[in-house]
Amino acid sequence: MSHPSPALVVMDSTGRRLYRQTDELRAGGDATRVALPGGLTAWSVTSTPMIKSLVTDPRVTRDPRKGWPGFTDETQPPWMMPWTPASMFNASGTDHTRLRKLISPAFTQRRVEALRPSVTAIVDGLLDALTTAPQGEPVDLRATFSYKIPITVICDLLGVPKEHRDLMAQVMEAAIDTSMSAEEAAANNYAMVKAIIDLIAAKREEPGDDMTTQLLDIHDDGDRLTEQELVATLILMVGAGSETAVSLIDHSTVALLTHPEHLATTRAEDRWNDVIEESLRRDAPIMHIPARYALEDITLPDGTLIRTGELILIGFGAAGRDPSAHDRRDEWDLDRTDKAHLAFGHGIHYCMGAPLARLEATVALRRLFDRFDVELAVEPSELRRQPSFIGNDYSAVPVLLTRR
Q1: What residues are paired with 45 via a beta bridge?
Q2: Is 1 inside a domain boundary?
């Protein structure tokens, strides 16, 4: 017997009710029907066991061309456009294996560790600039520091010309703003794709020692990478390579500033890894991943029926505060023994950029707190959320900095 169809919950796209709404969705059972912008309806999944089950279920796909009846590039809502191009993000089977093999060598632990000197140089340069800020005046740490680190690193890796980086950062950040109108989202998607196409054209004109050139060589040398896959892969790398780390740095900073006893312990005992993992658990950088699609009818343990072709919204960020998985789930605790999380996903689509995000955040936090005494310039309750149900970050992190 199927579970009675629950009431449709309207997803808050502004980010203001992010955790309250995930609690409401979790209370609805194994999956809860939600209304998304653009007239879409999906099943929201927010419990750890159910997330792990569905993202490894062969009856569920990330590819809208296989699982979303009637899908076309023209009929999807504009806010979905960054998530549906044919890339490693939504590929499956041999296509996923092929695309992942092309990119994964750049993100091995050894390759990432080799980036430590360049990441440190970027961080130190940004901190040098902050030493010239007027003393006693608030500084937006997100805009001046945390966001600039990962976008600079990924743009260096891809060989993005310096004069194009501000635009690249702007369109990538806007891609997860789910509060935009359809017209704004469509315009931003156009600008994002154009920025990548311009990058490809620049690298064809003047190749370099960078990943864009390497991917171009693969594309031009055979049939291992189509033009659409090339564009989509570069969009994925810039977007995933920036948004995850900036949120991690922001949330870790705020957690340390609101838990001064843990900041003191971290400095004294070099426990930055514990800071990173607890921040990933409590405040995962991505709250909901759109989207997955049912390839056939799926009956969940509580009787809920997800029908063939229906959309599934996976709440990876909600798993870190799942009361069935974590005691004192809302508390940030450096000494928590179980910091398990799904912040970087689960299964074959586990984020290959996770080691780089951890490296960037560790270097950024250690160097920041070595060089400055930092204080929030507003009450924690006044920090504004990113306007998104996909991303999980602050719009700004105003702080007061005092050189040590």
Answers
A1: 314
A2: no
Q: Are 303 and 3 in contact (CB under 8 A)?
A: yes
pLDDT digit string (tens) for the chain, length 404 residues:
344 455 799 999 999 999 999 999 999 999 999 999 999 999 999 999 999 999 999 999 999 999 999 898 888 899 999 888 888 888 888 888 888 888 888 888 899 999 999 999 999 999 999 999 888 899 999 999 999 999 999 999 999 999 999 999 999 999 999 999 999 999 999 999 999 999 999 999 999 999 999 999 888 776 678 888 899 999 999 988 788 999 999 999 999 999 999 999 999 999 999 999 999 999 999 999 888 999 999 999 999 999 999 999 999 999 999 999 999 999 999 999 989 999 999 988 899 899 999 999 999 999 999 999 999 999 999 999 999 999 999 999 999 999 98
Domain count, the chain: 1
Question: What are the start-end ranges of the H helices in 258-353?
Answer: 260-269, 272-282, 316-319
Find the CATH number of the domain harbouring 89.
1.10.630.10
Within the chain, what is the greatest distance between any pair of CA atoms? Answer: 67
CA distance 341 to 317: 8
Task: Establish if 175 belongs to a structural domain.
Answer: yes
Cβ neighbours of residue 223 closer than 8 Å, sequence gap 6 or more:
none
Residue 3 inside a domain? The answer is no
Domain extent at residue 390: 9-403
Q: Are 63 and 104 in contact (CB under 8 A)?
A: no
Burial 225-246 (b: 16+ CB within 10 A, else e): beeebbbbbbbbbbbbbbbbbb
Query: In this structure, what are the phi and psi dihedrals at residue 34, rounded to the nearest 5 degrees?
Result: -130, 145
| Number of Cβ within a 10 Å radius of residue 113 | 12
Structure tokens at 380: 């924690």
**Dihedral sign, Cα of residue 112, residue 113, residue 118, residue 121:** positive
2 falls within a domain = no
pTM for this prediction? 0.94
- The structure tokens listed for 222 are 């055979």
Which value, in Å, is the radius of gyration of the alpha carbons in the chain? Answer: 21
108 residue type, one letter: T
Name 57's Cβ contacts closer than 8 Å, sequence gap at least 6: 298
The residue with tokens 């929030």 is 376
